[in-house]
Design goal:
heterodimer, A: alpha/beta, Rossmann fold, 6-stranded mixed sheet, 4-stranded antiparallel sheet, 10 helices, about 35% helix, globular, B: mainly alpha, MetI-like fold, 3-stranded antiparallel sheet, 3 strands
Chain lengths: ~300, ~350
C-alpha cells in the first residue's frame, strides 16, 4: 500500500491556521543542536546528534522513534538527569542545567515514595521548596482532587493500581507548578484499557491547566492521539527525521482513531520509523515447515 | 497459591503445613536428643556401677566404659566371684532433656556457691548490657557511615577499602590489645563486640543503601530536592525498613561475639556462669545457659519484628522475614488479621 500524505497545510486550511496560531505563542523550551556521546572501548559513540526543536506554550509534543534511538536519553537530558555533550537548552530563553523544579518529570515506573501516602507524595516538591506543612498540604490536596483521588489521599502507594499510581505521579509533578512537564513512556506499563483511559484523561487535564508537555512514547497511536506535533527520531546516531504536525482536529476523541486523517498520519509515521536504515531486520521468516500438508490455518 | 506438592519449587506451602514444619523444626532435634537420652540401645557408652561385686576398684556410682565393665565381669565370672551390677548411662556432658529443662528453672533459684559469685540473672544482665552497649556504639557510628558510603561515591571510595581489609581481622585477636588499652572490666568486652560488628555493619548498611532505586532519587531531584534533602527525605526513609532488618541480623552477629568478648580480661557474664558450672560438672546448667542465650536472641528478634510492623505500615508485609513462621505460631490469628486490616484502613 502506498499512502503518501500530502502536506497537511495544503490539505486543510483550518489545520494550517491552527499551527500558525500555535507558532505565535511564546517558546517555553528551545533545544539547540543537542548531542550526547558516550565513551566506549571503540572510541566515542554518538547517541544523539544535532537535536533542535522548540516547544511553544501549552503545546503537547510527542517524541517517537525505534528502540535505541535515544528518546529516553533525550528526555533525561531535558529533565537534567543526564548531561549533554554538546548543545544547549533554553527554558523561557534562559539556559538550564541539572534537574530543577521548573521542569517536572513523570517516569514509566511511577517512582512514588512508598513510605509516603498519596497526599504526602504530592506535597513532596512543595515541602522541598520550603512551604510549611499545612499550606503544602492544602495545595497538594487540591491536586489530589484534580486527579480524582480525593478518596485515596491517605492511602499508601502499594494500595493503589498502576493507573492510580501514575495519576499521583502526575499530580506530584504538577503540584510544583513546573513550566514544562516531561513524560517518559508514562503509560507503557499499564494494560491497554487503563492506558486508553489515562490518555483521554491526560488530554482533559492538559486542556485545563497552563502546562507544556513533552511526551516520549513508542506507541504511534498514542502519539497521534495526544500530540500537536510529533518529533520523529531515527537511529545511529539518534537524530530528528521529521517533525510531524498532526492534522487530526481537536478536541480529540477515540472515535477519530478510525478516521482517514488519523490513519494516514499513523501510516506516515510508520513509514518514517520503519524506513530501511537498519540492515539487521528481515522482511519475513524463512519458509521452514513444521506441520503436515493439509493442516493449514489460513 | 499453595499446592498439594510438598516439594514444589518456589511455591508457598499451606499455612497448616508451614505450621507443622515450624513445629517439626524444634521437635526433630529435640526428638533426637530424647532418643539418645532415654533409649539405652541408641548410645549409652558408659555403665554406672550400682553394686561393685568382687571387682576391687569399682565403687558404687562410678561411671565406667562398657567394654571395661563387661571385661571385668567376665574375669569375675571365670574366677567364680560375685558379679558387678550396673546400668547403661550417657557421658556426664550429655544430660537428658528433662534435667536441662529443670535446670532452666533451678539455675535461677540456686544461690551461687561462693558469696562473691553472681546469681544467674546477674550474669545474664551483665551480658545483655555488654551486648547493648557494644551494639549501640557500633550502630551510632556504623549506620551513618554506611548510609554516607551508600549515597556518596566519595565516602565509599574513602572508607570501604580499609573496612574491607579490617573486617577480615578476627575481633578476638584484639583481646589482649583491648585489655591493655581499656582495662580488664566491661570496656574491652564492649570493644570486642564493637570491632566484631562495626566493620560488617558499615558494609551491610552501605550495600542496603545502594539498593535504593535510583529513579526515586531522580524523581526527588526533578521535584527540587537539595542534596541534604535527598539524604534525609529520600535515602533514609527509603532504606529504613531494610536497615531495620539488617540491624536485626547484625544483632544476632553481636551475640556470637559475646562469649569471646566475655573471656577477655576478667571472665564475666553468662560466660563466667557457663565456665563455673562446667568446672562443677553441672552440665545441665551449662546447657540451660546456652539455651537461654538462644531464647533471648530469638525472643528479642520476635519483639523487634513485631515493633517493625507497627513502625513501617507501608511495608508491613515485608517485615519479619526470618521469624514470620514462628510468629505465626505465637500470635493469634485474629490479632494478625486485625493488624492487616489496620494497614489497609
Amino acid at each position: 500500500m502506498n499512502l503518501v500524505l500530502p502536506s497537511y497545510r495544503e490539505q486543510a486550511p483550518e489545520v494550517a491556521a491552527r499551527f500558525a496560531k500555535l507558532y505565535e505563542r511564546a517558546v517555553v523550551l528551545e533545544v539547540k543542536e543537542l548531542a550526547r556521546r558516550f565513551a566506549s572501548d571503540e572510541g566515542t559513540v554518538a547517541a544523539l546528534e544535532g537535536i533542535s526543536f522548540r516547544a511553544h506554550r501549552r503545546e503537547l509534543i510527542c517524541v517517537i522513534g525505534p528502540s535505541g534511538c535515544g528518546k529516553s536519553t533525550l528526555i533525561r537530558i531535558l529533565a537534567g538527569l543526564d548531561e549533554q555533550s554538546d548543545g544547549q537548552m533554553l527554558l523561557d530563553g534562559k539556559p538550564v542545567r541539572g534537574p530543577g523544579p521548573d521542569r517536572g518529570m513523570v517516569f514509566q515506573g511511577y517512582t512514588l515514595f512508598p513510605w509516603r501516602t498519596v497526599i504526602q507524595n504530592v506535597m513532596f516538591g512543595l515541602e522541598m521548596r520550603g512551604h510549611d506543612r499545612s499550606t503544602a498540604e492544602l495545595e497538594a490536596m487540591e491536586w489530589v482532587e484534580i486527579v480524582g483521588l480525593g478518596r485515596f489521599a491517605n492511602a499508601y502507594p502499594y494500595q493503589l493500581s498502576g493507573g492510580m499510581k501514575q495519576r499521583v505521579a502526575i499530580a506530584r509533578a504538577l503540584a510544583n507548578r513546573p513550566r514544562i512537564l516531561f513524560m517518559d513512556e508514562p503509560f507503557a506499563a499499564l494494560d491497554a484499557q487503563t492506558r486508553a483511559q489515562m490518555q483521554s484523561y491526560l488530554l482533559q487535564l492538559w486542556k485545563q491547566i497552563d502546562i507544556t508537555i513533552v511526551f516520549v512514547t513508542h506507541d504511534l497511536e498514542e502519539a497521534v492521539y495526544l500530540a500537536d506535533r510529533i518529533v520523529v527520531l531515527g537511529t545511529h546516531p539518534g537524530h530528528i527525521k521529521e517533525i510531524v504536525e498532526v492534522p487530526v482536529p481537536r478536541p480529540r476523541t477515540r472515535e477519530q482513531m478510525i478516521s482517514p486523517v488519523f490513519i494516514a498520519t499513523k501510516k506516515h509515521l510508520e513509514s518514517l520509523i520503519h524506513a530501511r536504515d537498519t540492515d539487521t531486520e528481515t522482511e519475513s521468516l524463512p519458509p521452514i515447515r513444521m506441520t503436515q500438508v493439509g493442516d493449514e490455518v489460513e | 497459591m499453595a499446592t498439594a506438592d510438598w516439594f514444589a519449587v518456589r511455591k508457598p506451602l499451606s499455612p497448616k503445613r508451614s505450621n507443622l514444619l515450624a513445629v517439626l523444626a524444634f521437635v526433630l532435634p529435640l526428638g533426637t536428643w530424647s532418643a539418645v537420652s532415654y533409649l539405652p540401645f541408641v548410645w549409652h557408652p558408659l555403665v554406672e556401677v550400682q553394686k561393685p561385686g568382687s571387682v576391687d576398684y569399682f565403687v558404687s556410682g562410678m561411671l565406667i566404659d562398657k567394654e571395661e565393665f563387661v571385661a571385668q565381669n567376665r574375669k569375675a565370672a571365670a574366677a567364680g566371684h560375685a558379679l558387678a551390677v550396673g546400668e547403661p548411662r550417657n557421658p556426664i556432658y550429655l544430660p537428658a532433656p528433662h534435667r536441662v529443662v529443670r535446670a532452666l528453672y533451678t539455675a535461677f533459684l540456686a544461690p551461687p556457691r561462693l558469696p562473691t559469685e553472681p546469681w544467674l540473672h546477674q550474669s545474664l544482665w551483665q551480658s545483655i548490657q555488654v551486648i547493648f552497649w557494644g551494639f549501640m556504639l557500633s550502630s551510632a557510628l556504623g549506620v551513618p557511615l554506611g548510609i554516607l558510603c551508600g549515597t556518596f561515591a566519595f565516602f565509599s571510595k574513602l572508607q570501604e577499602p580499609f573496612v574491607e581489609f579490617f573486617r577480615y581481622l578476627p575481633a578476638p585477636a584484639f583481646g589482649a590489645l583491648a585489655v591493655a588499652v581499656l582495662g580488664i572490666y566491661d570496656a574491652p568486652k564492649i570493644a570486642i563486640i564493637f570491632i566484631g560488628t562495626f566493620f560488617q555493619q558499615v558494609l551491610v548498611v552501605a550495600n542496603t543503601t545502594r539498593k535504593l532505586e535510583l529513579p526515586l532519587i531522580e524523581a526527588a531531584q526533578t521535584l527540587g530536592a537539595s542534596k541534604r534533602q535527598l539524604v534525609f527525605k529520600v535515602v533514609v526513609p527509603g532504606v529504613i525498613v531494610d536497615l531495620y532488618t539488617d540491624m536485626r541480623i547484625l544483632l544476632g552477629w553481636a551475640w556470637t561475639y559475646l562469649i569471646v568478648a566475655e573471656m577477655v580480661g576478667t571472665t564475666s557474664g553468662i560466660t563466667y556462669f557457663i565456665n563455673q558450672q562446667a568446672r562443677y560438672r553441672n552440665y545441665e546448667n551449662v546447657y540451660a545457659a546456652i539455651m537461654l542465650i538462644g531464647l533471648i536472641g530469638l525472643g528479642s528478634d520476635l519483639v523487634l519484628g513485631r515493633i517493625g510492623r507497627h513502625l513501617f505500615p507501608w511495608r508491613a508485609e515485608a517485615q519479619g522475614a526470618g521469624a514470620s513462621n514462628l510468629l505465626r505460631l505465637f500470635v493469634p490469628k485474629r490479632a494478625r488479621r486485625r493488624a492487616a486490616a489496620g494497614v489497609a484502613a
